UniProtKB/TrEMBL annotation:
It comes from Mesoplasma florum. InterPro entries: Leucine_aapep/pepB, Peptidase_M17_C. Keywords: Aminopeptidase, Hydrolase, Protease. PANTHER family: CYTOSOL AMINOPEPTIDASE, LEUCINE AMINOPEPTIDASE-RELATED. This is Probable cytosol aminopeptidase.
């Protein structure tokens, strides 16, 4: 729990640039030293090749693990040792780390240590409203993490459909529905149905709608929700099957953003679409080289069954544009290994032909400190998506070339000239086998206004 300027507590946390105050302090960037005589933790933040904010994040995370009781945090000491950075950003990072590290995460272990200590931020600025917003944002960062972390035998498409319907129905003004195979067939959403063919669970498309801006545009958030991705008949090798329960992360993020915005009563109109299914092999699973007609009428050649994410997104984007009259479309997906190889765990890849969309996302990310990097969609990428198909309008997997860009180019055929931005977040969304809820804060910041 976090408070501001309340009672003096048993322990203190102070940021220092070196160990001049006490030679027993380890003078190393992001290190934390506990001095028992004064019941004080000292976090060293200093000029170094490691950025100030990274030192702050790593040091705070270490402090949370070491913490022994209720603690006062000397915020002004942090602001003093971190030059040229807005105090709001520093305050946000302090809140982010505390709320992230103290979250009671999903686990099936018998004995789990929890941290229920009180953290009081002593500071002279008036940040009470900012604290309330940070608590709300991080509530849904942690909600996304929990959705990510469910094991695949529990976290099925049916499970997510039921859970999201139940949880979101508690939020005033948020309309929620779940489309299953019968409704999807009636809507001609044949691409998600094709991906779902090998599954013993129906596809669940969770649709959240919120209207709180009579004169505003309608924003669509579309998320890939592949609950487990075997690759289908283009089966993944064992080295690449680990962590495939996280292939539903895009939908987890989109649903969490929607719930956060609705609970905050943001002045926005949106439809959020979580496309939940799995991609399995079996007697009925879709075969490579199959031709499927998409919801918007284009035919797709399934050149690779392991390029299933763009298929479900394509129908989801068309649904947003044609059925829900979206003016602007964002999609979020753990989509390609190519983008993961290019950016690793450093940033999410962003693909858009709309410069203003990128500019606004980048500004929001500078505030939240989540990182994004823009990558291209060139005309030749779109040409390749068409030309590499033998029998259909488009292929779902090009023969060669930059896989992240050709995947994004494929999706542009379904945005129908609407403002469109695609986020490919394959590696930043988890650390090992633990979800991170990445992107929720940035999209909340971007859209809340």
């Amino acid at each position: 729990m976090i408070t501001i300027n309340t009672n003096k507590l048993e322990y203190k946390l102070i940021a220092v640039p070196n160990n001049e105050i006490n030679i027993n302090i380890l003078d190393k960037p992001s290190s934390v030293t506990f001095i028992s005589e004064s019941k004080t933790f000292y976090l060293v933040i200093k000029k170094d090749s490691m950025s100030y904010l990274r030192q702050l994040k790593l040091g705070l995370a270490s402090f949370i693990q070491m913490c022994q009781g209720d603690t006062n945090i000397d915020f002004n000491s942090f602001a003093k040792v971190i030059p040229n950075i807005n105090k709001e950003i520093i305050f946000n990072v302090v809140c982010d780390v505390i709320l992230f590290e103290t979250h009671k995460f999903i686990t099936y272990k018998k004995d789990v240590m929890t941290n229920d200590y009180l953290f009081n931020i002593d500071q002279s600025e008036e940040f009470s409203d900012l604290l309330v917003e940070n608590i709300l944002k991080n509530k849904y960062v942690n909600y996304a993490r929990d959705l990510q972390d469910f094991p695949p035998n529990i976290g099925t498409s049916d499970f997510y459909g039921e859970k999201l319907l139940k949880d979101s129905s508690k939020i005033e003004g948020l309309k929620v529905s779940v489309l299953k195979n019968k409704e999807l067939k009636e809507l001609d959403m044949n691409l998600i149905l094709a991906v779902n063919q090998g599954s013993n669970h129906e596809a669940n498309v969770v649709v959240m709608e919120f209207n709180n801006n009579p004169c505003g545009k309608k924003i669509a958030l579309v998320g890939k929700g592949i609950c487990f991705d075997t690759g289908g008949y283009d089966l993944k090798p064992s080295a690449f099957i680990e962590g495939m329960k996280f292939d539903m992360t895009g939908a987890a993020i989109v649903m969490s953003i929607a719930m956060a915005l609705a609970e905050a009563k943001a002045k926005i109109n949106f439809v959020a679409i979580g496309l939940f299914t799995d991609n399995k092999i079996g007697q009925k699973a879709v075969l490579p080289e199959s031709i499927i007609k998409s919801k918007n009428g284009l035919t797709i050649e399934i050149s690779n069954t392991d390029a299933e994410g763009r298929l479900v997104l394509a129908d989801g984007i068309t649904y947003a544009v044609r059925e829900k009259n979206a003016d602007v479309v964002y999609d979020i997906a753990t989509l390609t290994g190519a983008t993961a190889m290019a950016l690793g765990e450093s940033a999410s890849g962003v693909f858009t032909e709309f410069d203003e969309m990128w500019k606004k996302l980048n500004e929001a990310s500078n505030y939240t400190t989540e990182r994004f990097w823009r990558l291209p969609i060139f005309a030749e990428h779109k040409e390749q998506v068409k030309n590499d198909s033998v029998l259909a309008d488009l292929t779902n997997s090009c023969i060669k070339g930059p896989g992240g860009s050709t995947a994004a180019a494929f999706l542009t055929f379904f945005a129908e000239d609407k403002e469109f931005l695609h986020i490919d977040c394959s590696r930043v969304v988890r650390v090992g086998l633990k979800g991170q809820g990445y992107i929720v804060k940035t999209m909340f910041e971007l859209l809340k206004k």
